[in-house]
């Protein structure tokens, strides 16, 4: 369309025809020094090894996943892939959401672009894509499919077309933009079908189709036109009827006057019911029970880009059910004020009143279904929806009933820590328990989650490989004037004596903590001696667990003596340490002579009777059987078994003998599981 006298040469951008250039682009883009910098200078940047690992995993997936490789021939999709990886694996800038990345991507490609400059309607290309591609995307989500036939595509593109002008617009869209959204499928077994160029784009466009209100039944379309017509005419007629009613005493006029007002109101209720149905569908998609035990939605997205480590599913195997858990996330994100502003620039405005009514309908449904106890991965998805929505007041009202945050086993990447902190960090009510066991947390993650920890009464951080450097964050947490933690579980983390040196500083200035577990944290003699020397600086602690820490007789006796003199300590766990038989007996004697002091648990027996804490000890062993050193555990269990046999031989009480035999049986079962001879 540019006059030829101004054009000397033109070229067509075909993308990365050479896969080596494609890989080079990813290396340059993912290794930019500012990509891994945390917000506010807190920043733990991604290491060079982590970035190289991302590039390597992405390259391997591109080599084996031909559909993604085909999409990444387009440089703009390479940008989208890198932006998504930065979001998933680097500290997230404040306010950035996954929805905003996709909205920005579409603005970069289509901002201000009309479908056909010669058409007087000046319809934006993005608005046309939302109506046509959004319809196809939503029908795919509804029927749970990602592959579309030519008939499927044609049916959505040509739905409702009547005039020559409309068919001309369709021709322009097919020629200029269709291949941007849809691509021929190159996967075996699906030749001849079409897929969305980037899988997540299907769910984004489906969500856009819904929030723009483009999904309407015939009754809703006709009803809206009639209601608007009656509403416009009704204003003029009502004015005339009002004047006539004053001049002539006609009783029927007020009735007609009220009927004209009722028609728009009735239609408004019909639209409200439609919004409730959409909200219901969205919430049900978010809480589908068959998706309860799959990965959270952020890990699913990372796997779709980087691939899944391990053997691939064989092409001849029956396909798994398609999962569309991003669809409700994008719906929430598109209703946020930030994304609505960008969509308005693209010619896809969402009215504030419509957004408010949609939000009210979603809140109503979330309030009902959101009270159920969710598996950890689904709970994170629920929190991610609120993060995408970016409305603190909305989230505070919906999540006001949340009392337990159980994310055990969820891999807490920087973005997930940011999501949880952003959604729950500003709440007012206390959380009874926060369980983050086995979450691969690091000190940066602990720092990000500090606002959430300050709301917790019980905090579980077991099995996270937290070292001494994490203890400085925990010390600051315990010293914070808003800390209300009563129970802190740090078991199975390599804290060592260096970490405990910082923890005791926090204990000295803390007034809320009553139960502390340092089970299997590598304290050794030095760590127990430190605790013994500093224990009297804390006046509230009631239970301390330092079992399985490799400590000897001297350190254990020093800590037991300090515990006996402590004003509030009631229970000290010292079992599975490297204690001699004399040391164990000395600890039993110390516990037996203490008047009002702490009870010391070193064995399954107390004299010739079974210890009342025997089930606590054995359940702890059972829980950690696969993560502890099996030879060391077997040796300790053999010692406990010998104690039980000695106690059974020393008592004549048949009831005690029966109890001891029962516990012996439990120990032998554990030894069999370990492959021992017990």
UniProtKB/TrEMBL annotation:
<dbReference type="InterPro" id="IPR051261">
    <property type="entry name" value="NLR"/>
</dbReference>
<protein>
    <submittedName>
        <fullName>NLR family member X1</fullName>
    </submittedName>
</protein>
<dbReference type="Pfam" id="PF21402">
    <property type="entry name" value="NLRX1_C"/>
</dbReference>
<feature type="domain" description="NLR family member X1 C-terminal">
    <location>
        <begin position="610"/>
        <end position="671"/>
    </location>
</feature>
<dbReference type="InterPro" id="IPR001611">
    <property type="entry name" value="Leu-rich_rpt"/>
</dbReference>
<keyword id="KW-0433">Leucine-rich repeat</keyword>
<dbReference type="InterPro" id="IPR032675">
    <property type="entry name" value="LRR_dom_sf"/>
</dbReference>
<dbReference type="InterPro" id="IPR048900">
    <property type="entry name" value="NLRX1_C"/>
</dbReference>
<keyword id="KW-0677">Repeat</keyword>
<dbReference type="Pfam" id="PF13516">
    <property type="entry name" value="LRR_6"/>
</dbReference>
């Amino acid at each position: 369309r540019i006059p030829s006298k101004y054009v000397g040469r033109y070229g067509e951008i075909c993308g990365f025809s050479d896969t080596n250039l494609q890989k080079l682009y990813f290396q340059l883009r993912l290794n930019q020094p500012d990509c891994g910098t945390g917000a506010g200078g807190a920043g733990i940047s991604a290491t060079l090894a982590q970035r190289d690992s991302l590039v390597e995993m992405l390259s391997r997936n591109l080599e084996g996943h031909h559909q993604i490789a085909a999409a990444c021939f387009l440089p703009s999709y390479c940008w989208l892939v890198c932006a998504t990886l930065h979001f998933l694996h680097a500290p997230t800038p404040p306010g950035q959401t996954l929805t905003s990345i996709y909205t920005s991507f579409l603005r970069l490609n289509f901002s201000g672009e009309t479908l056909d400059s010669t058409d007087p309607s000046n319809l934006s290309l993005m608005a046309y894509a939302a109506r046509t591609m959004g319809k196809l995307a939503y029908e795919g989500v509804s029927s749970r499919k990602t592959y579309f036939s030519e008939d499927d595509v044609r049916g959505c593109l040509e739905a409702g077309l009547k005039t020559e002008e409309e068919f001309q617009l369709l021709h322009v869209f097919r020629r200029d933009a269709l291949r941007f959204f849809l691509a021929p499928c190159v996967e075996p077994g699906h030749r001849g079908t079409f897929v969305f160029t980037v899988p997540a784009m299907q769910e984004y466009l489906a969500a856009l189709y819904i929030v723009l209100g483009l999904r309407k039944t015939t009754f809703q379309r006709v009803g809206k036109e009639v209601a608007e017509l009656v509403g416009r005419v009704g204003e003029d007629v009502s004015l005339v009827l009002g004047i006539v009613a004053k001049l002539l005493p006609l009783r029927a006029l007020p009735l007609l006057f009220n009927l004209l007002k009722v028609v728009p109101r009735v239609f408004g209720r019909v639209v409200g019911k439609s919004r409730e149905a959409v909200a219901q569908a969205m919430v049900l998609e978010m809480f589908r029970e068959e998706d309860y035990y799959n990965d959270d939605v952020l890990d699913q997205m990372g796997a779709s880009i980087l691939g899944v480590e391990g053997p691939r599913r064989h092409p001849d195997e029956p396909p798994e059910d398609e999962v569309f858990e991003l669809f409700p996330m994008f719906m929430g994100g598109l209703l946020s004020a930030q994304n609505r502003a960008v969509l308005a620039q693209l010619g896809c405005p969402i009215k504030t009143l419509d957004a408010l009514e949609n939000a009210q309908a979603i809140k109503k449904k979330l309030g009902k279904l959101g009270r159920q106890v969710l598996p950890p991965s689904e709970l994170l998805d629920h929190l991610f929806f609120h993060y995408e929505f970016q409305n603190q007041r909305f989230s505070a009202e919906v999540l006001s009933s949340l009392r337990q945050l159980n994310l055990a086993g969820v891999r807490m990447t920087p973005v997930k820590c940011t999501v949880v902190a952003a959604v729950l960090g500003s709440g007012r009510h206390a959380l009874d328990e926060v369980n983050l066991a086995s979450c691969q947390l690091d000190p940066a993650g602990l720092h990000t989650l500090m606002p959430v920890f300050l709301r917790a009464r019980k905090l579980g951080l077991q099995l996270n490989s937290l070292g001494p450097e994490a203890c400085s964050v925990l010390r600051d947490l315990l010293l914070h004037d808003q800390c209300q933690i009563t129970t802190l579980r740090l078991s199975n983390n390599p804290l060592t004596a260096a970490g405990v040196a910082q923890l005791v500083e926090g204990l000295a200035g803390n007034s809320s903590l009553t139960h502390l577990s340092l089970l299997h944290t590598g304290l050794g003699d030095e760590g127990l001696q430190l605790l013994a020397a500093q224990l009297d600086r804390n006046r509230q602690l009631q239970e301390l667990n330092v079992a399985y820490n490799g400590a000897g007789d001297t350190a254990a006796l020093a800590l037991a003596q300090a515990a006996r003199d402590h004003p509030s300590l009631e229970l000290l766990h010292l079992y599975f340490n490297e204690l001699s038989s004399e040391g164990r007996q000395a600890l039993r004697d110390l516990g037996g002579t203490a008047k009002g002091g702490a009870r010391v648990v070193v064995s399954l027996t107390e004299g010739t009777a079974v210890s009342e804490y025997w089930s606590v000890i054995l359940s702890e062993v059972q829980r950690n059987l696969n993560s502890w050193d099996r030879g060391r555990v077997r040796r300790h269990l053999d010692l406990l078994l010998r104690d039980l046999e000695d106690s059974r031989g020393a008592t004549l009480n048949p009831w005690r003998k029966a109890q001891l035999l029962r516990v012996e049986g439990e120990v032998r079962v554990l030894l069999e599981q370990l492959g021992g001879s017990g």
